[in-house]
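Q: What would this chain look like folded?
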Amino acid sequence: MKKAGILNRHLSGALAELGHGDGVLVCDVGMPIPAGPRVVDLAFRAGIPSFADVLDGLLAELVVEGAVAAREVRDANPAATRLLETSFPGLELVSHEELKAMSPDARLVVRTGEARPYANVLLRCGVFF
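A: My prediction, written as structure tokens:
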């Protein structure tokens, strides 16, 4: 039994299957889930688990070489904006519609319980060497 890191067996297993260049969409409860990618739905109740908590756990285990978020986050969700800009200095911003159009190309979707708008980010996996 694991004693640290991500304990959810579905998420831990999905992360182990990722490779360089694979996309991981971390999204709030309102983001449309595209057909195609593997989905690990962590949503329990509104706000639980939070976008910040899930992103923090993922970043502790993943190598990320790029990130894309919706530019609408800047006006609608200051807390998510601070988190994204702090976590990803080279954050790319696109329209929310563009982000939704990009999401079917993700290999994995991790749905959080976040109930504040535009708390979504598409991560691009890197390599540790």
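The chain has five helices and six strands.
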